[in-house]
């Protein structure tokens, strides 16, 4: 259980500290994928409703971040990468983070349900629950497969955006979910390869800690191979098209090349060049997801202009 007796040692929290508590970098991914899910859906949404929906989804994502930081404050104080977060740095009290996270969670779910539909609100509620309870409180400190299962939480936003538009779930929204879900393990394990000491010190059973670098490299390659057909499948759905197909072919080949390069390296080689290949794959993985969802937007735009972007269907 997280220590909730942290006392501020660096003065009163500023607005920026509360923004940081909501994990804005993670929120940007949530907002973007949810927006794409909404825009590529076949049912048009009034701009005001769409704006409100994305806002409430963003708030829900931020609420999840605040609750995650509340629970993980003890290990955040140990890990170099997270020591400057608002709670371990003493800028925001753990009780404040808990109250803010709970309040924003309830607000975002209710308001999304009212602004869009019950299905979207329910999906957002489940996403927050999954990230906070299933991943943060349970899996993260229990299994080296924490990232695999916990990655589902970050994969729900495009499904929520789709539900805002359609009121339901479809093959297209499930494939968008799977794209993010299968992308998450190689993305985070590439990071873990050069951040192993942090997770080891904090006692988090990341795959690099429990099974070592060689096993992690194999897992990265396997999940990258499994990721490739998901992107290709999206190109042949009602929301796909030439841009998605081109992106899926080029980006997956590049991702596979990076994963193969990592797989063939030894720990000694990685140490010798400062994990340069692992860092390149991690950075590329960020580009990969934004580019894949961006390609879906390009095809949706072309479709909106009346172009026949899917002659194969």
From TrEMBL:
GO molecular function: protoheme IX farnesyltransferase activity
Reactions performed catalytically: heme b + (2E,6E)-farnesyl diphosphate + H2O = Fe(II)-heme o + diphosphate
Annotated localization: Cell membrane
GO CC annotations on file: plasma membrane
Family matches, as InterPro entries: Protohaem_IX_farnesylTrfase, UbiA_prenyltransferase, UbiA_prenylTrfase_CS, UbiA_sf
EC number(s) on file: 2.5.1.141
Topology of this chain in the membrane: Multi-pass membrane protein
Cross-referenced Pfam families: UbiA (PF01040)
Chief place of localization: membrane
GO biological process assignments: heme O biosynthetic process
Database matches in CDD domains: PT_UbiA_Cox10
Transmembrane segments: 26-45, 51-71, 92-112, 118-138, 220-239, 245-263, 284-305
Other comment: Carbon 2 of the heme B porphyrin ring is defined according to the Fischer nomenclature.
Function, as annotated: Converts heme B (protoheme IX) to heme O by substitution of the vinyl group on carbon 2 of heme B porphyrin ring with a hydroxyethyl farnesyl side group.
Family: Belongs to the UbiA prenyltransferase family. Protoheme IX farnesyltransferase subfamily.
NCBIfam families: cyoE_ctaB, PRK04375.1-2
PANTHER family hit by this protein: 4-HYDROXYBENZOATE SOLANESYLTRANSFERASE, PROTOHEME IX FARNESYLTRANSFERASE, MITOCHONDRIAL
Quaternary structure annotation from Swiss-Prot or TrEMBL: Interacts with CtaA.
HAMAP family reported in the protein's UniProt record: CyoE_CtaB
Protein name (record): Protoheme IX farnesyltransferase
Originating species: Mangrovicoccus algicola
Gene: ctaB
């Amino acid at each position: 259980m997280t220590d909730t007796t942290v006392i501020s040692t660096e003065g009163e929290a500023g607005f920026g500290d509360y923004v940081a508590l909501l994990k804005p970098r993670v929120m940007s991914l949530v907002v973007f994928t949810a927006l794409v899910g909404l825009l590529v859906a076949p049912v048009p949404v009034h701009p005001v409703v769409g704006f409100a929906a994305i806002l409430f989804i963003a708030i829900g994502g931020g609420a999840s971040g605040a609750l995650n930081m509340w629970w993980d404050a003890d290990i955040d104080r140990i890990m170099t990468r997270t020591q400057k977060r608002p709670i371990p740095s003493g800028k925001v009290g753990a009780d404040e983070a808990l109250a803010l996270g709970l309040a924003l969670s309830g607000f975002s779910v209710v308001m999304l349900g009212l602004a869009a539909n019950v299905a979207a609100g329910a999906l957002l509620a489940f996403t927050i629950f999954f990230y906070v309870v299933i991943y943060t409180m349970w899996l993260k400190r229990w299994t080296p497969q924490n990232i695999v299962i916990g990655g589902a939480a970050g994969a729900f936003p495009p499904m929520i955006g789709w539900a805002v538009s359609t009121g339901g779930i479809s093959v297209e929204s499930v494939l968008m979910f799977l794209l993010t879900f299968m992308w998450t393990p190689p993305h985070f394990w590439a990071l873990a390869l050069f951040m192993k000491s942090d997770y080891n010190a904090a006692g988090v059973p990341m795959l690099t800690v429990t099974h070592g670098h060689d096993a992690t490299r194999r897992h990265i390659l396997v999940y990258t191979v499994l990721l490739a057909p998901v992107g290709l499948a999206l190109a042949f759905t009602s929301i796909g098209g030439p841009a998605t197909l081109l992106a899926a072919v080029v980006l997956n080949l590049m991702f596979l090349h990076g994963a193969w390069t990592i797989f063939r390296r030894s720990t000694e080689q990685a140490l010798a060049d400062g994990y340069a290949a692992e860092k390149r794959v991690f950075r590329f993985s960020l580009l990969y997801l934004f580019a894949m969802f961006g390609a879906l937007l390009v095809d949706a735009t072309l479709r909106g202009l009346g172009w026949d972007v899917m002659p194969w269907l």
